Amino acid sequence: MCGIIGYTGEKQAAPILIKGLSSLEYRGYDSTGLAVIDHKHSPYVLKAAGKLSNLKDSIGNKIPDGKIGLGHTRWATHGTPNKTNAHPHTDCTDDIIVVHNGIVENYLEIKKELIDKGHIFQSETDSECIPHLIEEYIKENNSFEAALTSTAKRLQGANAVVLISNNKPAQIAAFRIGYAGGIVIGYGENEMFLASDLAAILPHTRKVAYLSGNEIAFVSPEGPYYIELEGNPIKKSPSIVNYDPLSAAKGEFKHFMLKEIHEQPESMMNTFRGRVKFDRKAVELETLPYSDEEISEIERIVLIGMGTSLHAAMVGRIWIESLAGIPAEIDNSSEFRYREPILGPNTLVISVCQSGETADTLAAMSEASNKGAKQITLCNYPGTQTSRIAESTIQIRAGVEIGVAATKTFTNSLSNLYILALYLGFKRGNITQSYFQKAIEELAHVPAMIGSLVANQGQYVKLAQKYARYSNFLYLGRGINFPLAMEGALKLKEISYIHAEGYPAGEMKHGPISLIDENMPVVSLIPQDNLYEKMLSNISEVKARGGKIIAIATEGDQEVNAKTDNSLFIPKVSNLINPLLMAIPMQLIAYHMGVYRGCDVDQPRNLAKSVTVE
Ligand code: F6R
């Protein structure tokens, strides 16, 4: 959470910082701010509550001079999202200027100590104790470098800090402790960039290095040097980012979310490329580091994730049990990390984390590593923190996703889990060659089917006109479609602010059915699969109690059409791959409801794209 951008070089910093902030705004949009130094005047620091457009309005045409600077877009943790609490924060003398991502867990204790020493704080944030602490360590006759190492050692929690000093012309410093959001350092020609993620750096350079936990960087236009917390130098070689980030422009689309929904046929093809050999009907997962023998020794699989990624993992669990025949469990990363999970060398932990930065998933993965489990992760970006913990990464290759709600990263996580389950199943002899080959053949048609689903938006607009005024929705599914019901409800909540819950349809009679009346639309996921008849009975029970039913059914299903108030259809596919198609109506219902209600669908309130704090 929180987006950070820094620049030092020969160009004016402010326009570069503003452009960088616009590509980082999806990480948080409670407030924005920037600081530039020109060394003739005191530092120029400007902040605004709310979105970047407010900051741009306050700058107007008066672009501040200065070839070094920092920018920040905030997702508030401590202190209300107002202008005073916006970053950057400074010390008492306005010398040290800091932007921060993370939570300083011991900030109250540090703040009290600093106030006792005479420091005056302006904001309610935990972040502000950082510039004051650095100021204090410098006062104690420490060098700037030593003051930074002492500060980094003193802070508890997961934190990424980037700062400039009026006394250090052209130098940006940064440090990371724990698993806070990453820091990427971009190498240009006589200029350097620092950012919380690649999206802000790639328009300038593809040569990058990543700061790991407990490392400090000192970056000037001629290049960086790195030390670890004890002060010892570290050698770091930059690497070249080869993948092509999709254009961050909305193009013909009104919203990023809609653009990303439309990109799904292509992003799914990208994920198949090189892995699924449709001509030979084979799957090749060359990044999977396990021999056939090791695969046969896997006794148990534990899938973890948060939010939409957890829903993908829930589907993955069913695929793994059905196709690979391996006992599989699912856990929310934030729960997994705080219990005492029983793991060993024959347990494979699969984490789903498109950003590669989710704090809870990172902590859960560390727990799994410490306990000696095998570990692979699904991620959308190279070089992320999750990739560094896992033994192997499956890049889901969805391209950059700007809309805060996950759409194409969800379907790409699903398709990769399906390929993985097929692969493991075939290697372990749990599915026959002919089953395996038929499954691959069928997969080849899925991107085009998704294409036909996203092309047909009119019915969703009408649905929104009819239902957007309702305050509560239920989503019901069974079997492999239950996680999709959860996902549909999550999407509706976050995009349109309508309360929605996803339930296994069988659970209705155990309580939730008492909620049913004419004010409770029920989205029923009822494709013609092995649980179709059961779902039919469940929707009849809802109908009998006055509930309104929106069904997502298989094309041509007249029976469901006759029994429900509205029906939307997906193509007929085999039971197991229904979720790949079912995801699309879940996204489109939420999108059109949100748009109809005038919500900011790309940047829903209170959310951020990467959740780098617990
Ligand atoms: C919902 C959404 C979130 C994320 C969750 C995990 O639309 O985007 O629920 O799925 O924050 O994010 P990652 O996959 O980055 O771990």
If you had to describe this structure to a student in words, what would you say it looks like?
The chain is 35% helix and 23% strand. By secondary structure, it is of the alpha/beta class. The strands form 5 sheets. The protein has an 8-stranded antiparallel beta sheet with strand order 3-2-4-1-10-9-11-15, covered by helices on one side. A 7-stranded antiparallel beta sheet has the order 5-6-7-8-12-13-14, with helices on one face. The protein has a 5-stranded parallel beta sheet with strand order 19-18-20-21-22, sandwiched between helices. β21, α12 and β22 (392-395) form a beta-alpha-beta unit. α7 packs antiparallel against α15 (446-455). The radius of gyration is 25 Å and the shape is globular. Residues 306-309, 353-355, 358, 361, 405-406, 490, 494, 610-611 line the site of fructose -6-phosphate.
What's this model, at a glance?
The protein is of the alpha/beta class.
